[in-house]
C-alpha cells in the first residue's frame, strides 16, 4: 500500500503539475474566504443591448449633425478624396499608407456615384455627393462607442462604468471632429478599437481555452490586427500590444507548469490566428490594390520600370526593346530610393566646380541622355543601320538638355561619400577626353531574350569608368541644399559589379528609327516582388516626411504636447468671419484627467507591489485582483505603446496621431474611476461620482461644440474658449 507522498505516476498518468490546465481566471464559484468571489460580467440583451443602441444613436447624432455644412474640400480631404478618385479611375498612385483605408474611401465614392473626375480641390460640384462620403467615414467613428462599451464589459467593469467609458468616447470633441471628414483616421481608430474589444473578449474566455467562444475571439483578434495594419502603419503598434500580451500569456503558462503539449497547442493557435491571418489580410489588401490600379498614373516613378511597363497606358509599355546608339535613354539606379540619372545647369560649389550629376526620383526632362559612340568613331545616325549597344562597348552619355557629357576623374573626391570619385557633366561629344568614356558591362538579363545586347527595362548593367575602373554608383545619400536634396552619384572603387548601388537599367528608350515592342510580354513580375517593392517605397516616403524646424507651421506639434492639449489644430487655413471654421481641440477635462491617470498608473503599480511585499492585507475579493491587473495592463499598455514610440519617430507629427492612444486613455480613466468607486465609496455615492464625471464631460463638450460642428461667425464671439495661452483660436500662434 502506498501513501500519497510515495505514490508513483505511470507514463499514461501525468502528475498533477503536468496535467494542470491553464485557467488564468478562477472559475466562477471558486472557493472564497470571507468575501464572495469576483464574478465575470454576463451580457444581458435586454439591458446591455438597449444601452448600446441608445449610446450608438447619441454618437450618430454628434458625428452626423451638420456634417455637410461646409461644401468645400476641407483639410486632408484634398489628399484622401483624391486617392479614392484614383481608385475609381484605376490609376496608379503613390502614398505612404497601406491601401485599406483609402480603398474604403474609394468604396464610399463608388456608392455615392462619383465618376472619379473631381480632383478634390475647392468647392464640391453638384455631381459629387460629398455628404454621403463623409457619412460613410463617420460610421467608423460612430462604431467606436459600442466597441468601447463591449470592451469595458469584457474587462469586467461595472455596467455603469461601461456606460461612462462609452460616454467619454462619445463626448470627446477631437474624436468627433475628426470623424466628420473624408480621412483615414476613423477607420484606423475603428479597427484599433475592434482589436482591443477582441483581445478583451479573448482574455475573458481564457478559462474556456479551445472552445468555440475562445476560437471566435482569437480569430476576431487576428482579423482586426490585419485590418488595422492595412489602414496605417501605426496599426503595427496595436500588433505590438497584442504580441506582448501573447508573450505574457505563454510565459504565465510556463510559470504555472502547464503541460508542454498544451502550451504547444496555444502557441500554434496564436501563430495561426495572430501572425498568419493578419499577414494574409495585409497581403490581400495589397493584392486588391494591384488588381484595381492597373493603369498608369502619377505614382509610376516610385516603382521599378518592369512594374511600370505592366500598367495600361504606361509610356514604358511600348518602346524599342534593343538599345541602339544615338537613342535617347532614361537610366534608373537599381538601388531602392536612388532614382534616375539626372543633371541640371547647376555646378558643384566645391571640388571641380563642374555641372552637377545626381539621381532624381521624379519624371523630368533633365533625366534624358543620349548614348553615343566615343570620339573618333564615325556614325551617320540617319543613313547607317542602327547599331545595338553590346556588353563591353565603350560609350559616352550626353545630357539631352545641356549637351554636357557624363564625366569622372581622379582629381576630385565625391562631395559626401568618402573614398569615391566625383562624377560631373563636362565637355561635349567628340572631345578627346578619356574621362568621358564608360564601359557597358551586362550583369543579368530578366527577359527570355538572352544575348550580349543591351535591352530596355530587362537588362541590368554596370557603367565602368574606363580610365579609373570605378563604377557609376548611387547609394541614396542625399546632397546638401546646394544639390536640392537629390541623391549623390559617385564613381565608386569599392562596389562589386552585382551590388544594387552600381546596377542600372534603361527605364525609357526613345528612337524614332526603331519599332516599338509590347514590353508587357517581355517583363516578368511577381506579386511578392511588387509587394516588397511597394512597402519599401512607402517606408522611404515615410522617412522623407521630416519637419523643417526653421519654418513656421501651425499644423505640426510634438509628441510631448499631445496629452496636455498644448497645441490644438486649426483644420482650415481661412479663419475669417463667414468662413466655417473647425478646430481640433479635445475635451480638456477628459484629455487632462486621462493623461494624469496614465502618468500615475506606474506609481499605482509600484504602490501595490510595495504593499504586497510588506504583507499588507489586500482588499480584493477572490479573483478580483487578477481581473483588475489584467484589464489595467491592457489599457495602459495600449496607451503607452501607441504614444511613446512617437518620441522616436523623426517624421512630421500632428495632434491626431495621439487619437489611438487617447482611446485607450479614456477607457483607462473610466476603469480607474470604477475601481475607485468600488473600493472607496459605498452606496449611492458611487452613482453620484459617475454622474458628475458624465455631466462634466457633457458640459465641456457642449462648450467647445461650436468649433466641433463648424462656426461661421467672428471667432472673437466665442469668448473664454481659449483655456491655454498656446491655443491659436483667436490668433495664429504656434510655438514648436
Characterise the protein shown here.
- The chain has 736 residues and is α+β, with helices and mostly antiparallel strands.
- The protein is built from 18 helices and 16 strands.
- The strands form 4 sheets. It has a 6-stranded antiparallel barrel with strand order 2-5-6-9-10-13.
- The protein is elongated and about 100 Å long.
Mean pLDDT: 89
Q: Strand order across the biggest sheet?
A: 2-5-6-9-10-13
Helix content: 40-55%
Relative strand content: 5-15%
> How many whole angstroms does the radius of gyration measure?
32 Å
Overall morphology: elongated
Q: Which spans have pLDDT < 50 for at least 5 consecutive residues?
A: 1-38
Quickly count the helices: 18
Count of strand segments: 16
- Termini gap: 81 Å
Structural class: alpha+beta
**Quaternary structure:** single chain
Report on the biggest sheet.
Answer: 6 strands, antiparallel, barrel
Keywords:
6-stranded antiparallel β-barrel
TL;DR?
It contains 18 helices and 16 strands. The protein has helices spanning 16-19, 45-64, 77-89, 100-111, 130-142, 144-154, 159-170, 173-178, 185-204, 212-229, 235-255, 260-292, 305-309, 527-544, 588-613, 624-643, 659-680, 684-709, and strands at residues 318-319, 328-333, 340-347, 355-360, 368-372, 394-399, 405-413, 420-426, 438-445, 459-465, 471-478, 487-492, 504-510, 517-518, 569-570, 583-584.
Amino acid at each position: 500500500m502506498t501513501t500519497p507522498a510515495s505514490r508513483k505516476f505511470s507514463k499514461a498518468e501525468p502528475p498533477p503539475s503536468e496535467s494542470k490546465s491553464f485557467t488564468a481566471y478562477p472559475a466562477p464559484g471558486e472557493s472564497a474566504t470571507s468575501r464572495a468571489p469576483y464574478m465575470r460580467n454576463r451580457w444581458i440583451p435586454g439591458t446591455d443591448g438597449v444601452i448600446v443602441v441608445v449610446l450608438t444613436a447619441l454618437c450618430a447624432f454628434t458625428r452626423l449633425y451638420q456634417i455637410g455644412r461646409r461644401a468645400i474640400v476641407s483639410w486632408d480631404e484634398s489628399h484622401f478624396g483624391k486617392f479614392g478618385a484614383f481608385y475609381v479611375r484605376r490609376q496608379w498612385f503613390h502614398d505612404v499608407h497601406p491601401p485599406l483605408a483609402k480603398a474604403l474611401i474609394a468604396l464610399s465614392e463608388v456608392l455615392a456615384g462619383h465618376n472619379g473626375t473631381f480632383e478634390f480641390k475647392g468647392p464640391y460640384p453638384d455631381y459629387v455627393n460629398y455628404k454621403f462620403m463623409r457619412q460613410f467615414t463617420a460610421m467608423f467613428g460612430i462604431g467606436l462607442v459600442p466597441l468601447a462599451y463591449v470592451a469595458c464589459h469584457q474587462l469586467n467593469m461595472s455596467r455603469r462604468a461601461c456606460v461612462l467609458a462609452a460616454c467619454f468616447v462619445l463626448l470627446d470633441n477631437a474624436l468627433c471632429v475628426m470623424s466628420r471628414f473624408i480621412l483615414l483616421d476613423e477607420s484606423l481608430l475603428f479597427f484599433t478599437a475592434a482589436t482591443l474589444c477582441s483581445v478583451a473578449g479573448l482574455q475573458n474566455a481564457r478559462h474556456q481555452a479551445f472552445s468555440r467562444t475562445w476560437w471566435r475571439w482569437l480569430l476576431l483578434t487576428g482579423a482586426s490586427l490585419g485590418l488595422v495594419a492595412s489602414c496605417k502603419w501605426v496599426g503595427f503598434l496595436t500588433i505590438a500590444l497584442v504580441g506582448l500580451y501573447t508573450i505574457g500569456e505563454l510565459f504565465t503558462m510556463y510559470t504555472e507548469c502547464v503541460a508542454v503539449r498544451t502550451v504547444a497547442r496555444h502557441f500554434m493557435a496564436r501563430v495561426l490566428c495572430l501572425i498568419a491571418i493578419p499577414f494574409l489580410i495585409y497581403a490581400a489588401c495589397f493584392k486588391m490594390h494591384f488588381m484595381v490600379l492597373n493603369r498608369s498614373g502619377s505614382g509610376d516613378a516610385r516603382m521599378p520600370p518592369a512594374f511600370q511597363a505592366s500598367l495600361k497606358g504606361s509610356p514604358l509599355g511600348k518602346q524599342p526593346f534593343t538599345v541602339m546608339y544615338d537613342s535617347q535613354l532614361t537610366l534608373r539606379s537599381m538601388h531602392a530610393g536612388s532614382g534616375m540619372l539626372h543633371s541640371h545647369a547647376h555646378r558643384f560649389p566645391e571640388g571641380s566646380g563642374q555641372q552637377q550629376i545626381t539621381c532624381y526620383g521624379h519624371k523630368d526632362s533633365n533625366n534624358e541622355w543620349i548614348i553615343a559612340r566615343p570620339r573618333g568613331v564615325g556614325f551617320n545616325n540617319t543613313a547607317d543601320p542602327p547599331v545595338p549597344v553590346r556588353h563591353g562597348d565603350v560609350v559616352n552619355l550626353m545630357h539631352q538638355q545641356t549637351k554636357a557629357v557624363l564625366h569622372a576623374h581622379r582629381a576630385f573626391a565625391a562631395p559626401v561619400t568618402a573614398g569615391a570619385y566625383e562624377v560631373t557633366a563636362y565637355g561635349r561629344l567628340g572631345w578627346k577626353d578619356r574621362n568621358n568614356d564608360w564601359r557597358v558591362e551586362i550583369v543579368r538579363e530578366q527577359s527570355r531574350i538572352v544575348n550580349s545586347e543591351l535591352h530596355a527595362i530587362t537588362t541590368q548593367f554596370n557603367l565602368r569608368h574606363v580610365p579609373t575602373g570605378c563604377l557609376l554608383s548611387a547609394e541614396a545619400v542625399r546632397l546638401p541644399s546646394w544639390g536640392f536634396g537629390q541623391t549623390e552619384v559617385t564613381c565608386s572603387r569599392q562596389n562589386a559589379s552585382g551590388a544594387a548601388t552600381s546596377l542600372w537599367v534603361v527605364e525609357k528608350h526613345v528612337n524614332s528609327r526603331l519599332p516599338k515592342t509590347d514590353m508587357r510580354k517581355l517583363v516578368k513580375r511577381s506579386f511578392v516582388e511588387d509587394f516588397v517593392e511597394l512597402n519599401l517605397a512607402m517606408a522611404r516616403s515615410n522617412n522623407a516626411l521630416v519637419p523643417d524646424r526653421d519654418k513656421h507651421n501651425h499644423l505640426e506639434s510634438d509628441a510631448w504636447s499631445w496629452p496636455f492639449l498644448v497645441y490644438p489644430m486649426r483644420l482650415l487655413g481661412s479663419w475669417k468671419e463667414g468662413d466655417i471654421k473647425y478646430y481640433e481641440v479635445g475635451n480638456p477635462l477628459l484629455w487632462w484627467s486621462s493623461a494624469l491617470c496614465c502618468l500615475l498608473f506606474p506609481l499605482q503599480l509600484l504602490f501595490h507591489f510595495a504593499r504586497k511585499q510588506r504583507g499588507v492585507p489586500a482588499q480584493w475579493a477572490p479573483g478580483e485582483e487578477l481581473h483588475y491587473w489584467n484589464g489595467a495592463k491592457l489599457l495602459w499598455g495600449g496607451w503607452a505603446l501607441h504614444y511613446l514610440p512617437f518620441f522616436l519617430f523623426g517624421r512630421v507629427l500632428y495632434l491626431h496621431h495621439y487619437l489611438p492612444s487617447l482611446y485607450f486613455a479614456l477607457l483607462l480613466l473610466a476603469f480607474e474611476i470604477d475601481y475607485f468607486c468600488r473600493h472607496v465609496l459605498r452606496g449611492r455615492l458611487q452613482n453620484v461620482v459617475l454622474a458628475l464625471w458624465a455631466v462634466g464631460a457633457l458640459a465641456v463638450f457642449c462648450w467647445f461644440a461650436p468649433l466641433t460642428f463648424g462656426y461661421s461667425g467672428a471667432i472673437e464671439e466665442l469668448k473664454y474658449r481659449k483655456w491655454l495661452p498656446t491655443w491659436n483660436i483667436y490668433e495664429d500662434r504656434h510655438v514648436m
